[in-house]
């Protein structure tokens, strides 16, 4: 973990704080003056700063500390700073928070609380730096992938999607059947387009069929074609989807809802490459690569007898499982921004997402996945009152809670700028205690998904193992 910088003009205080932090495994650097402190900020890798607010015995206003805080924030806006002083006031605390202090601790301090506060801030700083490094690394990897392959306009930022897309472009040239699985609205058709666009059949037909929308009596005619007069109403020759896709790729969406009769007919052509138009005795051959997609649990469907096991193994040489949007929260805002840009361009207007709207988007669980996200943005563009979209425009008022401000010093509870401890935090902690640490149970009692509760705990700094001791 990076060092803790202690800034105080009193040597005894510096020694006491340095000893306290070192006993808890934290490395410490000490500065006695603002100039020494600025040199340390410029020279060293710091995880957090604990600074006094006065550096002369006669000073009590805290102006020197406020000036130092501003100088530190000008150099490193993300560096956590904990202010310490024996002279507390609501006005001073409000000013410190506005100037960028992460917290405010009165002298004499509580050893346990101070160590916990500084440790958490330094740990969070370390995690944010590591995340920034990883994001930059991932961004470079995504950029290289997009330079080398056609990603069909797919927008993503998460590791989970990067792994899936990387596998998709890797298997694209192999000409084997691919099964794309995942909930409705996650982008299965887009992923199929990526496989097609990077295959050896990229310049050949790409035919899409919603297998779930095919009535059982029309499956054969739709897939294989029908001669004129083959059935009532067949007044002319009908070319089937396999014939249409010959030499290219056939995408069978919602294959999990195909009837058993339809599955049997499909299996036969996949095994032999041969088929006959309805009403014809001529055997035809089709050179077609089949991509399939489903939101069903096919192994369970096989166990229930509603899906053929032999067909499953025929279409599932490679599986590409798409995660739900709630399980890849890093993708939510980038996708939303991309969709919003497209909608704003179509409307010829400038539209943005407010910070509260971004927060609400990430907090929502997205049962309808990307499709729901697009629908909510469409609604928001239509009903917004200004340039910026707010949570109520998205219909996400309940998810629009803003992260709480840092805790206030003793005596400051009556100040308008310092609310009591976050009601959201208290609600979550109470639910966790009542659930005896079982996150799934606590999430259910709060009306959240487990992932949604974990995200809120992370945002509020709630550490389960510490809170439930």
From TrEMBL:
Modified residues annotated as 4-aspartylphosphate in this record: 52
GO molecular function per UniProt: ATP binding; sequence-specific DNA binding
Domain Response regulatory: 3-122
Keyword annotations of the record: ATP-binding, DNA-binding, Nucleotide-binding, Phosphoprotein, Transcription, Transcription regulation
A Gene Ontology BP annotation from the UniProt entry: regulation of DNA-templated transcription
InterPro entries, alphabetized: AAA+_ATPase, AAA_lid_NorR, CheY-like_superfamily, Homeodomain-like_sf, HTH_Fis, P-loop_NTPase, Sig_transdc_resp-reg_receiver, Sigma_54_int
Pfam families to which the protein is assigned, alphabetical: AAA_lid_14, HTH_8, Response_reg, Sigma54_activat
Domain of life: Bacteria
PROSITE patterns referenced in this protein's UniProt entry, alphabetically: RESPONSE_REGULATORY, SIGMA54_INTERACT_2, SIGMA54_INTERACT_3, SIGMA54_INTERACT_4
Domain Sigma-54 factor interaction: 154-382
Protein name, per record: Fis family transcriptional regulator
């Amino acid at each position: 973990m990076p060092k803790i910088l202690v800034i105080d003009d009193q040597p005894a205080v510096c020694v006491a704080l340095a000893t306290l932090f070192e006993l808890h495994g934290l490395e410490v650097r000490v500065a006695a003056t603002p100039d020494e402190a600025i040199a340390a900020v410029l020279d060293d890798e710091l995880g957090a700063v604990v600074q006094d607010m006065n550096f002369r015995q006669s000073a009590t206003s805290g102006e020197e500390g406020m000036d130092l805080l501003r100088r530190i924030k000008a150099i490193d806006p993300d560096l956590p700073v904990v202010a310490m002083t024996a002279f507390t006031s609501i006005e001073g605390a409000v000013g410190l928070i506005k100037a960028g202090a992460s917290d405010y601790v009165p002298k004499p301090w509580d050893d346990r609380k101070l160590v916990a506060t500084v440790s958490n801030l330094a740990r969070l700083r370390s995690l944010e730096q590591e995340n920034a490094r990883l994001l930059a690394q991932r961004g470079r990897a995504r950029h290289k992938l997009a330079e080398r392959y056609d990603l069909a306009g797919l927008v993503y930022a998460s590791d989970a999607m990067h792994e899936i897309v990387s596998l998709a472009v890797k298997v694209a040239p192999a000409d084997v059947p691919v099964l794309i699985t995942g909930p409705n609205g996650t982008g299965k058709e887009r992923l199929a387009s990526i496989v097609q666009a990077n295959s050896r059949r990229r310049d050949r037909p790409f035919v899409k069929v919603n297998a779930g929308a095919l009535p059982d009596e029309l499956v054969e005619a739709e897939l294989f074609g029908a001669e004129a007069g083959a059935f009532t109403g067949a007044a002319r020759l009908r070319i089937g989807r396999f014939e249409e896709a010959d030499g290219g790729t056939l995408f069978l969406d919602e294959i999990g809802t195909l009837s058993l009769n339809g599955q049997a007919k499909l299996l036969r052509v996949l095994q032999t490459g041969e088929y006959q138009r309805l009403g014809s005795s001529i055997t035809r051959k089709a050179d077609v690569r089949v991509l399939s997609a489903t939101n069903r649990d096919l192994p369970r469907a096989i166990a229930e007898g509603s899906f053929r096991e032999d067909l499953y193994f025929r279409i599932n040489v490679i599986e590409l499982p798409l995660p739900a949007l709630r399980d890849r929260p890093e993708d939510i805002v980038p996708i939303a921004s991309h969709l919003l840009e497209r909608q704003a361009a179509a409307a010829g207007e400038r539209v943005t997402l407010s910070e509260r709207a971004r927060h609400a988007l990430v907090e929502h669980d997205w049962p309808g996945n990307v499709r729901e996200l697009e629908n909510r943005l469409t609604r928001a563009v239509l009903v917004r009152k200004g340039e910026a979209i707010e949570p109520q425009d998205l219909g996400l008022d309940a998810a629009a809670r803003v992260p709480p401000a840092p805790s206030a010093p003793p005596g400051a509870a009556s100040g308008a700028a310092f609310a009591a401890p976050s009601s959201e935090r208290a609600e979550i902690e109470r639910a966790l205690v009542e659930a005896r640490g079982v996150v799934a149970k606590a999430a259910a009692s709060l009306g959240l998904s487990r992932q949604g509760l974990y995200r809120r705990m992370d945002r509020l700094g709630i550490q389960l193992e510490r809170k439930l001791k």
